[in-house]
Predict the 3D structure of the following.
Amino acid sequence: MKLCMIGTGYVGLVSGACFSDLGNKVICVDKDQNKINNLKKGIIPIYEPGLDEIVKRNFRNKRLSFSSDLNNSIKKSDIIFICVGTPTKKRSSESDLSYVMNVANSVSKLIKTYKIIITKSTVPVTTGDYIEKIISKKVSKKLFDVVSNPEFLREGEAIRDFMYPDRIVVGAMSNKAKKVLKNLYLPLISKGSKYLETSRRSAELIKYASNSFLATKITFINEISNLCEKIGVDVEDISIGIGLDKRIGERFLRAGPAYGGSCFPKDTKAIVNTADKYKSNLSVIKSVIKSNEQRNFLLISKIKSILKNKINRKKITFLGVTFKANTDDMRDSPSLRLIPSLIKKGAFINYYEPTGEKEIFSKLKNVTFSSSINEAIKFSDLIVIHTEWNEFKSINFKINSKNKKLIIYDLRNLYSPSVMKERGLKYFGIGR
């Protein structure tokens, strides 16, 4: 099939590359000409394991192409995917749909033959209705269908999630669109992926409800970890114990910092905003948002306690600053709140991040970047293990540190407290 992905961010690029790997002819479109030029050269704008190989292979085989020409790209394609950002509006919990609506307006001027327009972007319920209204002002309804097909890609595992999805959700209103979409996803369905056809509004809500539930699981185990610290039990035991219950499941039950990333903070706020518009009280999700926001304050208090309220002029090293491992995504990462808060208290911050130095921290005073783990920890008073990168799981702190009073605060519970004690290290974990 001939596909057009509008937007070459995380969703658009990963989905476009994977669709091309399934044998489709895919054009990825972006108005940023520099980005397009780099993609043609094999320069990938995001860090995602395995993505560069898939992009280069399918570009070489002419199944995947990149363009800034929206008009020509739509003309050549049968299915149009909208994959642009839907960030939260400033000083609001409402999703900013301006990018989506701009695309809808542009597409409405270019449709001459039947097209299926699909929202891959995470959008509030009824967005598909608005897109349909915009396009129908200039195009006969016989020439297009608007479909919701939410993505469920985890950063760091996106390729696997696309090729072996738990489920494929398609919200379509016409049998014609349903037939085309089922055919598009047939290679994945034949491998055993569950395929769910719903109404368009249902598909839109499924995405928000899914992310809100996962955010709830994370927040729940984080609150349980607070209780564990008070009563002297290990939250890891609790996570395993409740995760073995098939009704609950083990995933997303790892205690740690506040949840972050491009989805959970934005989507929990968006679904609450939608509920408020319809006068429906999502009190559980509101509590989750509040608890998650308080998480950063709690961690700062813990650091103060670990350092006996002597943060001023202390050298604190962060290992990892992205919101999770195997991605370079900084969006709503806990480090964006933790590091500035510690600086205000007089700390000197050093960090090592496998995906490189971050521009946002280069603008802050008393923040330095180290190019290696050994360099980062050498003269530290406190090491904060912020992100669960594999290379952080077997560090010899004793040898590499020059500070005999080194303290480790492990926000990901990568190490065993008993082993660290045996090594003569002062160690603190989460919920331990």
Summary: The mean pLDDT is 96. The chain has three domains: 2-198, 208-290, 295-428. The domain at 295-428 is CATH 3.40.50.720 (Rossmann fold).
